[in-house]
Amino acid sequence: MMRKENIPEKLKPLLKRWEKQEKEFYISPDNLFTYNHHNLKYKGGEDIPLAGWFASNGKADDKYKLSKEDVEDIAQELLKYYKPTKWTLILDWHCNYQCPMCCYHGDGMSDTDYYKDRGGQKKVISKDKAYERIDCLVEYGINSLSIMSMGEILLYPYWKEVSDYAHNKGMDLWTITNGSLWTEDIVKEAANMGYTDIRVSLDTISYETYAKIRSNKKEYFERAMRLPELLMKYGIKVNVHFVEQKENKDEKQEFLEYWKDKKVDSISIAKQFYCENETVKDMYAEMGKEYIEGLCTAFGNMQTLPDGNTHCCCGRMFEATSEERKLESIGCQNVMEDAINNMRTAESEMRKICYRCGMYVPYSDEKIMDGWKIIKNSERETWMKL
What we know:
Keywords: Iron, Iron-sulfur, Metal-binding, S-adenosyl-L-methionine. The protein is of the alpha/beta class. The chain contains twelve helices and 15 strands.
């Protein structure tokens, strides 16, 4: 059986193929975005999630539920229309911390292992090269840019000039910081440069724990703890971030309640990851986590590394350096098309990486509680103030 009315245009080619195959199916608002009682989000253009017909209560009748293969067919069809509007440009790798859980500077990330095949990532790019990459992104249609470092962004010597350049090109800016070097004057500058969102990585509200997992410099801790309120004062949305580790796992609720009381814009609680054999692994991996092709929430989070290597998600950035993936050589459009085509190729390297990746998240569940929207999946829990 089939529901024909109100079918979005982007799904009609797929449904016609299903009809030719004499496939029995039923698509409704209740089953299109639900699989095994989890809510789904497809990547396929803004009109897909915004259309009123696309709404789910997460309680699809089992009689009409879509199979895993059906969901994958829909996800792959909609990916054809996906075009990112956000991009992460990584400019530097230096950091003033050596957090043990860090994917770049933590345990096991020495010159003899992680950077052995990734030496090109360990560099600082010039202003002119940064401008060149920004021009490429603007031409492609990117309007939101994360100006990032593999360490602390304020240690990049040209962060102000590059931020100004991107903002003058019409881009909204965001970044991630450990907060240790930020003063009120720097926050004012960031607001004037067009920064709209900043994540502050904290992992605790206790100095004793902070000294174990981040830095034992008390002035760093105090600046980092003060930064979220300074950002809100100057109109920058703030996310405070907590990575669950053995040293702080009992502090998660205390961290959450503290920042809820401060009325920050969002709070994220993530699991710890490490890199092994070019794959991101989850320290607390769920055994048998289901892989549904085309649905990973990380896919499309475009990243260009200091050496120019460009990837379609944060998980792939841990692969070894490849001359074939330089942004200047292949362009934004080709990076995206190549990634989507690889997603459809049964024996592609991308699929093999996705199958092993601890950051693969096919679905998230949402609820509203006490003025907060809570989004939870296998990798993290995010609280967003309403």
